């Protein structure tokens, strides 16, 4: 490769003036941790019940950290399937009188608005979903977007960061609770399987691994 060759379009975009550190670090994509709780495994037929998201930010030293959590309880869409085994696993009662839930459309708008603000504020072009086995979360998110007719989904349509894979590489653990323990992050099993708690812990794990990689890279220089 010729070191004097002109930069590519991607390199020019990544190094453009005004780009934040996190925009340069992840090629214009803003990592956003997401977890969903559902009434089954089929994104097309089973209800989305909870969703939470945590944008990832970067400080002046280049270390990433979780931002503010945004979350929503979601009403099952008309005709949605509610698998009894899934409800027993999560402990969610979709029809509990004290459960303050919103229809999918308003719930997604509540989640997407601060994400779009974070994307704009960071100089990024789009969000990229961070999740533990994120294909599941992305599938339910995309299905809900399609049902509600939302035209501006801020997330990349197929690329994700998988903390199961990253934790397998960093710690030799792929189960979330075990990966969290290996990373010396506090874990309360009584609070697990809540979208908010699982998202926040996934965000912490992602940041721990990214920062660990950054520390190792600096040591090798």
UniProtKB/TrEMBL annotation:
<dbReference type="GO" id="GO:0046872">
    <property type="term" value="F:metal ion binding"/>
</dbReference>
<dbReference type="GO" id="GO:0004540">
    <property type="term" value="F:RNA nuclease activity"/>
</dbReference>
<keyword id="KW-0378">Hydrolase</keyword>
<keyword id="KW-0819">tRNA processing</keyword>
<keyword id="KW-0460">Magnesium</keyword>
<dbReference type="GO" id="GO:0008033">
    <property type="term" value="P:tRNA processing"/>
</dbReference>
<dbReference type="GO" id="GO:0003676">
    <property type="term" value="F:nucleic acid binding"/>
</dbReference>
<dbReference type="Pfam" id="PF00929">
    <property type="entry name" value="RNase_T"/>
</dbReference>
<dbReference type="GO" id="GO:0045004">
    <property type="term" value="P:DNA replication proofreading"/>
</dbReference>
<feature type="domain" description="Exonuclease">
    <location>
        <begin position="30"/>
        <end position="215"/>
    </location>
</feature>
<dbReference type="InterPro" id="IPR012337">
    <property type="entry name" value="RNaseH-like_sf"/>
</dbReference>
<dbReference type="GO" id="GO:0008408">
    <property type="term" value="F:3'-5' exonuclease activity"/>
</dbReference>
<dbReference type="GO" id="GO:0005829">
    <property type="term" value="C:cytosol"/>
</dbReference>
<protein>
    <submittedName>
        <fullName>Ribonuclease T</fullName>
    </submittedName>
</protein>
<dbReference type="InterPro" id="IPR013520">
    <property type="entry name" value="Ribonucl_H"/>
</dbReference>
<comment type="subunit">
    <text>Homodimer.</text>
</comment>
<keyword id="KW-0540">Nuclease</keyword>
<dbReference type="InterPro" id="IPR005987">
    <property type="entry name" value="RNase_T"/>
</dbReference>
<keyword id="KW-0479">Metal-binding</keyword>
<dbReference type="InterPro" id="IPR036397">
    <property type="entry name" value="RNaseH_sf"/>
</dbReference>
């Amino acid at each position: 490769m010729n070191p004097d060759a002109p930069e590519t379009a991607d390199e020019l975009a990544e190094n453009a003036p005004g780009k934040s550190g996190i925009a340069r670090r992840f090629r214009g994509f803003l990592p956003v941790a997401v977890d969903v709780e559902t009434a089954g495994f089929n994104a097309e037929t089973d209800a989305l019940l909870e969703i939470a998201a945590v944008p990832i930010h970067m400080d002046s030293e280049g270390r990433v950290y979780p931002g503010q959590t945004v979350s929503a309880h979601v009403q099952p869409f008309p005709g949605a399937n509610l698998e009894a085994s899934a409800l027993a696993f999560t402990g969610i009662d979709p029809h509990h009188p004290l459960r303050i839930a919103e229809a999918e459309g308003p719930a997604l708008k509540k989640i997407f608005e601060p994400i779009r603000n974070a994307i704009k504020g960071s100089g990024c072009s789009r969000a990229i979903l961070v999740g533990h086995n994120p294909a599941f979360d992305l599938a339910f998110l995309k299905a809900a977007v399609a049902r509600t007719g939302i035209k501006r989904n801020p997330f990349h349509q197929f690329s994700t960061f998988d903390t199961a894979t990253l934790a397998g590489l960093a710690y030799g653990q792929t189960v979330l609770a075990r990966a969290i323990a290996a990373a010396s992050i506090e874990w309360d099993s009584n609070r697990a399987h809540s979208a908010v708690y699982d998202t926040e812990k996934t965000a912490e794990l992602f940041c721990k691994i990214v920062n660990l990689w950054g520390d190792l890279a600096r040591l090798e220089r």
